[in-house]
Amino acid sequence: MATQSSWITEAPAFNHFASFEIDNAASQKANLDNDKLSTSGLPRIIGDSAALRDVLNMVRLVAPTNATVLINGETGTGKELIAEAIHKCSDRSNGPFVKVNCAAIPAGLLESELFGHERGAFTGAVARNVGRFERANHGTLFLDEIGDLPLELQPKILRVIQERQFERLGGGATIHTDVRVICATHRNLIEMVNERQFRADLFYRLSVFPIELPPLRERREDIRPLVHHFAMDYAARMRKRITTISESFMELLAQHSWPGNIRELQNLIERSVILSTGAVLTGSLPDPAPAYISKGLKASTSTTLEEVERSHILRVLEQAAGVVGGRNGAAARLGMCRTTLIYKMRRLGINYGQKPAQPVRSELSPLPIVADPIPQPPRRVEFLIRL
Hints:
The protein is of the alpha/beta class and about 375 residues long. It contains 15 helices and ten strands.
């Protein structure tokens, strides 16, 4: 598969700026194995790192087969592009390439989207609907974010992959389909299997040929050609004459960790092109997360749920001056019953503003709350009558 990239030629060279123009050697390195993966209509994949070459080599090996492929990688690494490349390099390239984002469709509608439904199958089903498996016949079905697939649908997905047949919702006729399934996820499916959030049999069926996409921070040599490609693309769209990229800006981009990977880099270059007013593209990295977000993320990695709950209850108790019940009490501020809050406080070992032996104070009963004494039988009084 050819890795395509375009460059602005005959750009003026500056001492302190990186030009869009590249030499012939770099141009040859930017095009990966044209003879190995040559076909028309391939998605544009930019880069020349060893990690990307390994991924493209796996694409070349698995594409001619009908094996199920599981693409793992962080968000923004280009999982959909790799899936489309596998489809374009396969014998099914003339067939449809149907995409489904399992995380974007509500669980109640996902089954109908995948398998279709007959008229009257449920309230609102006024007409027959053809599902994605049926639309992808003789082609490829790409299931993105497969880790978000509901558990109740996983046996049905397993059946259609293994037996290549299914039924529409509300229908009794069995529909046969010839479809290749490619899945992608950013989640750790092995941990989900161990936690019983994902079926083990479906996982082993999907991971026939796993492909791991490296994050952008592990292929920093691809940042420069990616920046050139995005800058040229957005400059052409916005009709701006950008001929060079500031070298200091390029070094800044090369040193960034890119937690959002290629998508984050693409969005940053788009913003920089929008803000540019001259022929030299410059910019800055996005502002770091606000202090309260960073503090919250940092705390969430070092504390347990009980500690967070205990800290929040103590904070609300302090705001309520130790009052639990009443309209302005801590229970009302937390949106729970007074007895529920008292139970949680006892479970979490909270005895705010009181000695351990003293109970929690309530606005409705300013006196300490003590247990009712055990009723005692009336004492029998005997009188001795002396004669």
